[in-house]
Amino acid sequence: MKTKHKLLAATAAAGLTLAVLLPPPAAVLAHGGEDHGGTAQANTGVALTDEVLLPKESQFLFEVGTRLAAYSTTYSRATLYGTVSAAAGGEGRVVVPQTGRIVRLVAQVGQAVRAGQTLAVIEQTLDATQQIGLSTERANAQAELRAAQQDYARLQSIADIAARKDVVAAELRLRQARQNASIYNGQAQQRRVSITSPISGTVDVFNLAVGQQVNQGDELFRVLNPGKLRVEAQVFAQDLSKITPGAEFRVEGLQGQPGAPARLVVFSNVVNPVNQARQLILELDAAGSTAYRAGQAVNVQVVGESGRGEKQLVVPSSAVTDLNGKPVVFVHTEPERFKIRYVQPGAINGEQTVLLQGEVNENDRVVTTGTYQLKSIYLNQ
């Protein structure tokens, strides 16, 4: 028993000696002195950093481009989609008043015309039944004229014994017969109708020729006044608050046309039962409408009174990308360092996107081209 106690005492003394002589435990270091402190975590396939390191050479190779984030009041405006159409007095359609053929063609494509100016002359054509009826009526008128002339001449020859009332009646009959005969004899000239322009403007494209047969109701010409155009837009529920009495409107073409101010004509109180939108009618001024044409699709920028002076942070829309299902932007913080910033995008207007939330500040340099490569490098590092 004494031997056992001596052995335990010796073991305890040896352990105390080692505790005194050995240095205290330190952090485990590996390849180059990096600190791997903390408990080891399982590989989840998601990078544990919020930045990407990319050498300059790779940036040139991937064509990484950046632009500055900035505050703006322009992109907090509502954007409506509209269609250009002719305003009142901006379009005149000329239709055939009666079936006939063109005997004279004055108008030319692209010609500037005045209201009331003759564009063409049409002669009415008759079918067989109408022609027979007209010939019969003309023959009857001629027969009546000859009978009236003979009766009047007979009464004149016996005027000294004829009753005065009979002479007067014969004279009236002769006058009426002459008038009717004149009408039927000149009916061929009366069947010609001059077609005039209803408005001042430019003659649009047409395809007509002298001698061509046209039918009643056919459209012959279309005269357009490019200085009188309007824009029809649909306003949905989310944009109704922007249409205020003091709102300003600007039309922007989708084909590179310069923007032009527009004036509110009417904001309909009727709701479209199909899409639940209300119709907005705007009128372009004469100077701004020259770049637009009827039927063209345009954007309508609306600035309400509540939107003036309200600044919002905007970035190019190409800077916003998706990372693991969340919208992010890459911010170029140092020459070879890019930080990931999670954001909450807002309204998108043209090529710009409003950032409602996120650690992006004014004048931060956000990546607009090469974001796909940066995202791939981040997910694989």
Characterization of the model:
Residues 4-9 and 11-46 have low confidence and may be disordered. The radius of gyration is 46 Å and the shape is rod-shaped. A hairpin with a 2-residue loop joins strand 21 (321-323) and strand 22. The chain has helices spanning 2-21, 56-61, 128-157, 164-185, 187-190, 371-380; strands spanning 29-30, 34-35, 51-53, 65-68, 70-72, 78-86, 91-95, 100-105, 112-113, 118-124, 192-196, 201-203, 213-214, 219-224, 229-235, 248-253, 260-271, 278-284, 297-303, 312-316, 321-323, 326-334, 337-349, 352-358, 365-369. It is 24% helix and 37% strand. The chain is α+β, with helices and mostly antiparallel strands. Helix 3 (128-157) packs antiparallel against helix 4 (164-185). The longest helix has 30 residues, at 128-157. The chain contains 6 helices and 25 strands. 19% of the residues are buried. The strands form 6 sheets. Strands 3, 5, 20, 21, 22, 23 and 24 form a 7-stranded antiparallel sheet that branches.
